[in-house]
Amino acid sequence: MLNKLYTVVEKSHEKIVLQLSDERHPIFQAHFPKHPILPGFILIDMMAEILNDNVIYIRQSKFIGELLPNDTLSCEVLSKGKNRNIKVFKNQQKVSHISYESK
User: What is the pLDDT of residue 31?
Assistant: First the structure.
C-alpha cells in the first residue's frame, strides 16, 4: 500500500526528509478523489516503515495541517528506548505530532 507513496530524501537518527508522490498514487485517489490528502494513519505507517518499527501503542497523534501530493515533509525524530516522538513539518510549519511505542 505504501509502495512509491514517498521518497526518502534525507535520513539520520534525528531527521527525515520525505517527498510525497503525486495525486495519481492509489492512497490519494481513495482519500479523496477531488481533494487528495494523506490520511493521518498512513503518516504513522510511513514513519514506522522508515524507522523499522513495529508500533504497539500510539500515545498521541495530532494532525494540524493537510499533507498533499508532492509535499516535502521534514520530520524531527526523538527516540528514547522503544518510544518515538515525531514532529512533522511542511514549509517550516508544524503539521503533525506523533508519539508511539514500538516492540
Answer: 87
Return d(Cα 11, Cα 74) in angstroms, integer: 10
Q: Distance between CA 20 and CA 23 in Å, rounded? A: 9
pLDDT tens string 12-21: 999 999 999 9
Tens digits of residue pLDDT in 34-57: 899 999 999 999 999 999 999 999
**The C-alpha cell of 60 is what?**
498521541
Domain boundaries, the chain: 6-102
Pick one of 1.10.8.60, 3.20.20.150, 3.40.50.300, 3.10.129.10 as the CATH number of 6-102. 3.10.129.10
